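Input sequence (150 aa), recorded before submission:
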Amino acid sequence: MAQRVRIAGLRELENALANLPKATGKNVLRRVLRKAAAPIESTAEALAPRFTGTLESKIVTGTRLTRRQAQMVRRADSKSSAEIHVGTSDPAGVQTEFGNAHQAPDPWLRPAWDQNKDGALNTISGELGGEIEKAAQRLARKAARRARGG
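Predicted structure, token format:
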């Protein structure tokens, strides 16, 4: 079931991102998203089944996807768009999460998302403005050094 969330001020943050170079804007977004994803990852590690003890060590947060996953994800190419994925790099983890013909599902990643999705949204809305401001200050210092000839 879809849930609507309304956050005020994101349009202003998007405009501020538009003033940054494209690579800088994406890096700012990725830093904030990694901070927001950290609690989801740690909860997933805690909830992961411990049959062999390796599944919790295979939970990753990142931007790289398999070829099949990349085909399923539509990528937007703008300064105000970035993606971070939390999941498992172990194919057995997918089988555990969703089940198969021989095994019932034992979800652990979806409950981790459900427990932390509101906190992730709060982290994104709270941290994004500060990260944009820091990036703008770094760019200003860099431009000042370049203007001085150093």
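Checked by second reader. The chain has a mean pLDDT of 85.
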